[in-house]
Every structure is written in structure tokens, then in C-alpha cells.
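Quick one: structure for this chain?
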Amino acid sequence: MAVHAEALLIYQSDKSAREMLYSEFTALLDGMVTAEQFAGQTLEAVYLQLDEQLQIRALVFFLLPFNQQGQVAEEWNLPLRDMAARGRPGPTLKGTPTRLLCRSQCPEKWHAWLWEPHERYGRDPFDDILRVLRRNRLGLLPASVPASPEAPAAEQTEAAEVPLITDVQASTSGQRRAQEELARLRTREQQLRHKVSTLQVQLNKATRRADELETANQKLRDHIRTLKAQFDRLRSRVT
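Got it. Here's what it folds into:
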């Protein structure tokens, strides 16, 4: 099964799942961006592999720990793609068989890093995932538009023999480029936010240091004035 698209869902307490393209997740792993809203938490997440028609073919239910800076913890190092390939038979979703890796069915070496699918907000976990994918906020596109079932067989054969770039195909290609550009811009925005945040922290530290130096300088001036006053009193006694 060829993997056409990869996506992740990250769950945070009672909030809706945070949807993320795999390219965005890679940027997060590389430390190019941070997720301050997840700082200091270990969250439940799902890695999804989708086929050319955006049907789910593999799911990995894993735990994702973040440090206090909103970066993925250094000890996390799961090979999600390899894990998806090793998944065991999972539920059939929308008529499509899937592979599933979760805590109850996985090799022991990954057991501590996985979680068991459970109801969320009273919804079946797999139904909830399908609901999120139907919403498609990530703008995922299928590889091609299926042929219309009403089209005569002869027309379909002719179309197959003479490949043409139709308006639909051109539109799909343009949308895919737009999707890639959007992902790039999202990553760049996160990078800039992280840079601004880092500079702000540095500025705050520098400001505090300047205040500390000014306080120390004032104390030194006061001490010098005290010593000068003592010296003047001693000199007046001598004279």
C-alpha cells in the first residue's frame, strides 16, 4: 500500500485535537518550532497513514512528551513509519482495512510509549478520527478524482489510452502546491514566533541584569559617600 499522506492528531485534555501534517511534526522534532501550549505535558497522539483516496490505512496511538520549553522531550524517539508498517490488523474504517499499533497490541519495547484507544467526549475513538478527517482542516487532497460511475466504459477506456491534463487535474495539482506552500508558511511562522520568543527571553534577562548592575552601582556610590564622610570627620579632628 502506497502512503499518499501522513497526518497527526494531538489531544490536549478536553480540547479538540490539534491536527498537524507530518512535515510540521518533523519541524517540531527538529526543534525548528515549538509548541508552547503543550509545554510540560505528555499528550496522547495518533499518527495516520492515508492512501491515495485519503482512506486511513494505518494508525499508531502513541504518547508525546514535551519539555518546559514546548519542545518534544529528548528521550522520545519512536520510528512512527516503521511502527505503522508493523501494525497488526485493526478496525475496518469506511470499508477499508487498517493496521493498528496501540498499547494492547505492540512489541514490548514500545509498550510504555503507546496508549489504548478510548472514548473521547462520549465518541468512539475511531469515529472521532474519521470526523476530524472529514473536516479536513489540513487541506489534504486525494491523488486523483475517481471516474464517474455514469461514464460509459468506452469513454473511460479512451481516456485511459490518451492521458490528458484536464482542468480537474490541473486544479488538483495547483491545490497540492498551495497546500505545500501553506505548510511551509506555517513552519516559517512557527520559526519566527520561536525566534521572537527567544529574543524576548534574552531581552528580559539583559534588562534584569542591567537593573541588578544599577542597584549594585548605587550601593557602591552610597558606600563611597559614607567613606568620604567618615574621612572628612577624621580629618577635621586631626586638624
